[in-house]
Amino acid sequence: MENLHDKRKVYDKSQLIESEIKQNPIEQFRDWFLEASENSSISEANAMALSTVEDDGCPRTRMVLLKAYTHEGFIFYTNYESKKGRAIEKSHKACLHFFWPSLERQVIIKADLEKVAENLSDGYFHSRPKGSQLGAAVSPQSQVIPNREFLEEKLKKLEKQYENTEVPRPENWGGYLARPYEIEFWQGRPNRLHDRIIYELEDLDWKISRLAP
């Protein structure tokens, strides 16, 4: 067994106090996201862990990319028939998690999910590199496949088929809007007395509270 007891660091880069935060969590997220995007040590500030609950009751978490955020919520794209897509269609809920270690910050978002309008999915799909479009069309995401060659052969056929024409967006591929009803902002602090500010949606207003670390 590898002993990891001594693998620890001191968190002392910033603070999160009530007098300085925004009253709307999307605005607070925007401020933190812009700082993360401008930080040279963070290569993908929009990388987020997406957790859904499967039929056996166990959560499954994977990394996806946030592609937009608005006053309504957070948008990402995926295969609707993937494991995450099937889980979302059953519960219409997910948890999003951002971790920016160089800023010693986390954001945890509980949200209700719905599909975005088809024209939004079309627009984003056709803004992607053609190789990514073909990859979405090729992959039966989360399904068992015989081998790597299965994908590569299918890709070759589609490359030839759409060599001089636009790749249509697959009907089973598109975006989700995650409408948040709870957002927690976590800022590392010394002595493990971290700052945790939670926003909870009550009717149309956000209730703001501090949680013990």
Automatic annotation (TrEMBL):
Its cofactor is FMN. PROSITE patterns: PYRIDOX_OXIDASE (PS01064). The gene is pdxH. Substrate binds at R8, K9, V10, Y11, K67, Y124, R128, S132, R192, L193, H194. Belongs to the pyridoxamine 5'-phosphate oxidase family. One of its GO terms (biological process) is pyridoxine biosynthetic process. FMN binds at residues 62-67, 77-78, 83-84, 106, 141-142, 186, 196. NCBIfam families: pdxH (TIGR00558), PRK05679.1 (NF004231). Keywords: Flavoprotein, FMN, Oxidoreductase, Pyridoxine biosynthesis. This is Pyridoxine/pyridoxamine 5'-phosphate oxidase. It comes from the Bacteria. GO terms for molecular function: FMN binding; pyridoxamine phosphate oxidase activity. Pathway: Cofactor metabolism; pyridoxal 5'-phosphate salvage; pyridoxal 5'-phosphate from pyridoxamine 5'-phosphate: step 1/1; Cofactor metabolism; pyridoxal 5'-phosphate salvage; pyridoxal 5'-phosphate from pyridoxine 5'-phosphate: step 1/1.
